[in-house]
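Extended Data, panel c. Modelled sequence:
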Amino acid sequence: MKTEQYTIDCTGDAVVGDEVCFERARFGGSWRNPKFLGMETIEGKIIRDSYGASKQQHTFMLQLSDGRKLLIKGRNLYREGCHRKPWPDESLRKAALQEKHARGDQARRWREMRLKEEWA
C-alpha cells in the first residue's frame, strides 16, 4: 500500500472525489464477547455521500481499490483520522466542499423545523 501518498488530513471534511486512507478497528468472535483483532487500513475513493433525514448522520460510499464498495458513517470514517491525496485542481475540491456544507446546513434546518412541528 502507498499510504504515504495520502498527505492531507481531511478528518471531518471529506468530500465526493477524495481518495482517502483511514484506519478502523477489526473485531472477531461473538457479538457478546468480541475480540479485538487489530487495526486495518482502508484505501478508497469517495463516490457518494448523503445526510440522514432524521439525524443528519453523514454517510459515505467508498469504491475500494479491490473493486468492492463500502458504506460507512462519517463518525467511523473520521474516528482515527482520515487522510487524502491532493486533487489535481484543488479549486474543484473547494467547490465540492462548499456544496457539501450547504447540503448539511439545509438538512439541519429541515430537522430543526421538523422538531419544532413535533413539539408544537
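The mean pLDDT is 90. This feature is highlighted in the accompanying rendering.
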